[in-house]
Amino acid sequence: AQRVTQPEKLLSVFKGAPVELKCNYSYSGSPELFWYVQYSRQRLQLLLRHISRESIKGFTADLNKGETSFHLKKPFAQEEDSAMYYCALETGANNLFFGTGTRLTVIP
Amino acid sequence: NAGVTQTPKFRVLKTGQSMTLLCAQDMNHEYMYWYRQDPGMGLRLIHYSVGEGTTAKGEVPDGYNVSRLKKQNFLLGLESAAPSQTSVYFCASSSAGKVAEQFFGPGTRLTVL
């Protein structure tokens, strides 16, 4: 069965410090992984996807199939990065599996 | 365009009462989803639909029913509400073939006493 694990419920970093939000997955097929973000009083929205290898708002995420991980990273955290972050797995079954989420707080 | 809208925004029910949550989208998306969000549990899929007149069960379907009579609307029903159904409910939609690009509504906060 598929599973997405985000081990940290809460993560606090200082402004300007590097940030890494962890995501591990379990899936027997070929995974497609994504990060969604929910800023305060805003809707949940897609942040980035592994297949495009893009950098959005300074965030990157690399799929590591050996470690079954898809950690989200940013070298220098900004206050506006404070939000709830969800890792999500698509299995080709017409829906997404979301992790439990990590609330990131960037301390000024 | 309004995107995905949800009605109502807030609701308080007593145990055993019934209600229907309405989700509407104006993006002509084929797929629609209902999730619940609980602290420490993340987002869990309740039911989804891949087209008008079709529905399918998600991860936590028990206690809920859905209908998709029109392409733009997806209704979530609670026939006999229970305190365990206290949650924030999110609706989302996506194009067929773009399941990962889901557009979410603002959420409905439901409390069952």
Description:
The complex is a heterodimer of chains A (108) and B (113). Chain A is an all-beta fold and 108 residues long. Helices cover 0% and strands 44% of the residues of chain A. In chain A, the strands form three sheets. In chain A, strands 2, 5, 6, 9, 10 and 11 form a six-stranded mixed beta sheet that branches. In chain A, strand 5 and strand 6 form a beta hairpin. Chain A is globular. Chain B is mainly β and 113 residues long. Chain B is built from no helices and eleven strands. In chain B, the strands form two sheets. In chain B, strands 2, 4, 5, 6, 9, 10 and 11 form a seven-stranded mixed beta sheet that branches. Classes of the chains: A mainly beta (108), B mainly beta (113). At the A-B interface, strand 6, strand 9 and strand 10 of A face strand 4, strand 5 and strand 10 of B.
Strand content of chain B: over 45%
| Helix percent band of chain B | under 10%
Shape of chain B from CA axes?
A: globular
Kindly report the average pLDDT value of chain A: 91
The largest sheet of chain B, given as strand count, sense and whether it forms a barrel, is: 7 strands, mixed
Tally the helices of chain B: what do you get? 0
Q: Termini separation of chain B (Å)? A: 36 Å
Cα radius of gyration of chain B in angstroms: 13 Å
The outline of chain A comes out as globular
Largest sheet of chain A: 6 strands, mixed
Low-confidence stretches of chain A: none
The protein's oligomeric status is heterodimer
